[in-house]
Amino acid sequence: MRIPAPGSSRPTRNWRRLLGPKQLALLGAVFAMVLPLILNSDYLILVTDMGAVVAFIVLGLVVLAGFTGLVSLGQVAFYSIGSYVAAIVTTRLGLSPWFMLLIAPTVAAAFGVLVGIPAFNLKGPFLVIITIGFAEIIRILVINLEHLTGGPFGISRIPSLKLAGLDLARPLFFYYFIIVLLALAMYGAIRLRKSRVGRALIAIRDDELTAEVMGVNVKYYKIMSFALSAFLAGFAGALYAFLTGYIGPDLYTFNESASYLCMSVLGGFSAVVSPLVGVLLTLLPELLRSLKDYYMLFFSFILMVLVLFAAWREHKAASSDSDKEMGARSWQRLRWK
Amino acid sequence: MLWPSATRKEVPDRTSFACDEIEEGSVMELFLQVVAGGTAIGLLYALPALAIVLLWNTAGFFNLAQGDFVALTSYFLYFFYIMMHMPFVLAAVLTILCLGAVGFIVDKALFHPLRRFNCNPLLMLIVTIALSVFLKNLIRAIWGTKPLSLGNVFGETPLNFFHAHIMPHTFWTVGLSLLLIIGLYILSQKSLLGVAMRAAAESREVAQLMGVKSNFIISLSFVISLMITAVAGILATPILFLIPEMGDSLGLKAFAATIIGGFGNPLGAVVGGILLGIVETLAGIYLSSSYKDAIAFGILIAFLLFKPKGLFSLKISEKV
CA A325, CA A311: separation in Å to the nearest integer? Predict the structure, then answer.
């Protein structure tokens, strides 16, 4: 029998008990179910769908940067590989979109392994640069291999997913489909974090050498987290292609990669908050049309302020010696070594 | 990242310094044109690369927003030269001073507090990424996304140099960059400031004990690095179209130059930049100009994989 710890009857604890993870998940699910009614417009639901697509990429970055501590600015490459593989195969060879929904992310994951192998030796800025360089090469190939990718015109008339007679290209149907998938992926990421593998990844982030000494296969887990994040990005790419029916090289620029990383940092690398930040920040500029041109400006500014704040918090916690007393839980996720 | 592809197709690539009429020239003339053009482009990569190395050596962080400061330079130059109708030299000097001021403000507002809080390197990296996004969107908010052009202030007619046709800005770029590089070398080797900077690079604590105000030195090196970047930007602006993303490719190639030359080595950065410029020009002529950037980045990745220490690795710098 559990003995309540002293001080557990404080009001904050009661709040925690009332709104535990299960209750929050239930609330979130109810909110997600009624969100289309609130938005009440096909266009806004479509934008939410795209936000959910982005959420998959952000989730991949949470695993890669948040768990394992590897920063990548080339996620857009896996995203575009996912969508182009899905689009080319379904339009040229006429294979089923459902089949490609599995194959395209797998191809992206294979490329993730390819990038992950050199990443083993590279740290910090060098890793970032190799991922940017990789993304640039992929983008240049996409623009120039015109007979395969359609060059700057992209690929149109990509078939959509069909489920039990429903055409999932309709934003509303696609919304429920992708929300369920996203919830599953988020749950998977939470489980991953608590599992043996997740603990190994976090050990690598905190101290690579110590992890190695403790028997963690650093190379294997680093490549695995690259593959996992590439898989999620490729999955997002395939979903995007089947949702809109059109893809072009304009969608896959460096700026996108930077904003995915910013989203995952803003969410504090939490498997739940970061993807939701991704959805919100895709939806917000559409809701506040007047801000549309400036929102990235605000967004990056807020990010810089937040990092300053986080660094200050950490500094204060380190200097005041009472590390555990600091209630900065969400900020502590930003602590990287 | 280089250019949004929609604008990219409309905008002709004016970065090739060598002239277009290749077929009529002899091998020797073509060689001269390639070397001159490649060196000029390479020096434009070498200057930001030098700035990156300077900052890395004294402050110990990587400024991923370097390319965006090049873009900011171009827009400042556009503002002074086209919008304010100033003479070019005055506009250029004002631009360099402005970039120095921007550097001072950014350092005081952002990097100085982060240094004081002993911020870990990965957060520092993310801050520079956020800064890069911020600068791009600031430019977009102020000047818009429409491609602007300054016109070639150095003159449009190619000069005849040993029968090779070489554009005047090639001479200007090579001459001014070499002057700047030599000046920086003398500054770092002979002046007291240079000695203090190198001391701070070697060991911040010991330098501080010897009476070097290392915080001031780091702020100053950030300002100087931005002023070097400004010179590169001013030299690059006449041959580029101004769009908010214009600095991205220049910035990335500057990183490539630092890595090819051996990270942390200023001389290596210069040599790496020139090599990259010549290889890129050759690739543009003999292989395909649309894959020229891909080849440059391929070289970068190959270097990171197989020779991460670069061509001229430094023995002392163990920060990598």
Answer: 17
* Pick from B5, B140, B291: CB nearest A152: B5
Q: CA nearest A312 in B: which residue?
A: B117
Q: Is A309 inside any structural domain?
A: yes
Cα separation of A17 and A9, whole Å? 10
- What is the domain extent for residue A209? 48-286+293-317
> Are B101 and B236 spatial neighbours (Cβ–Cβ below 8 Å)?
no
| Digit-coded pLDDT (tens) for B21-36 | 445 557 777 888 888 8
Say which residues have a Cβ less than 8 Å from residue B106's Cβ, sequence separation at least 6. B131, B222
Q: Token pair 């893809």 is at which residue?
A: A247
Can you give the CATH number for the domain in which B108 is found?
1.10.3470
- How many structural domains does chain B have? 1
Is residue B143 domain-resident?
yes
Whole-angstrom distance, CA of residue B244 vs CA of residue A60: 28
The structural domain count of chain A equals 1
How far apart are the C-alpha atoms of B212 and B223, rounded to whole Å?
Answer: 18
**pTM confidence score:** 0.82
Domain of residue A304, CATH code: 1.10.3470
Q: Which of A128, A264, A320 to probe the B interface (max B CBs under 10 A)?
A: A128
Side-chain-facing half-sphere of A46: CA atoms under 13 Å: 10
On whether residue A9 sits in a domain, the answer given is: no
- Segments forming the whole domain that contains residue B223: 23-306
Half-sphere exposure (Cβ direction) of B197: Cα atoms closer than 13 Å: 25
ipTM score over 0.85, yes or no: no
